[in-house]
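Aim 2, interim progress. The first record below pairs a target sequence with its structure tokens.
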Amino acid sequence: MLKPVIAAVLIAASGAVLAQAPAADAKEERRQKVREATKKAQEACASRPEAERRDCTRLEMCKQAKDPGKCEERAKARIEKRKQRQEKNKQ
């Protein structure tokens, strides 16, 4: 009586696990695109001094984004949060 229930649960669970594989592939594909974009940006900005390099890299990354304006907004928000954390940690 218990064996058919266990078999049904295993079959249902295996389908759910296999269904997640394409999502994992898409995630890895996005990761690879980000790595390539980061590498291009770092190469483009390698000759700049440290202070300018961060801004240059951000601009290069946002140029390659689907929506450069939105990318810039998010980047500026991250910069502001970073500044706030730094100020908070100094106190």
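The second target in this work package is listed in the same format:
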Amino acid sequence: MAIITTSLANPPNPEWWVPNTDVYISEDGLLVIEVELAAIKKEDFEVTVDANRIIVRGERLDGGRRQRCQYLVTELRYGPFESVPRSAA
């Protein structure tokens, strides 16, 4: 079984973030890609297959909240993101 890692090999911009991603073969033998993208609409991201790479790219918008709120803890990432799962095999 191949080990899959997620990275930004050549990020378009160093400020882009990488969502948590799992890639596995299901019990039915299907390739499953799970990307943790809370609060993102389907029109705000795209999935591209390029040769042997799967690229998940998009942007999580904050709706202007950052200017209207006083944050006490900030762990969520906003802005552009990209996930490129790579097989180690």
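The two ends are 8 Å apart (CA to CA). This observation will shape the mutagenesis plan for the next reporting period.
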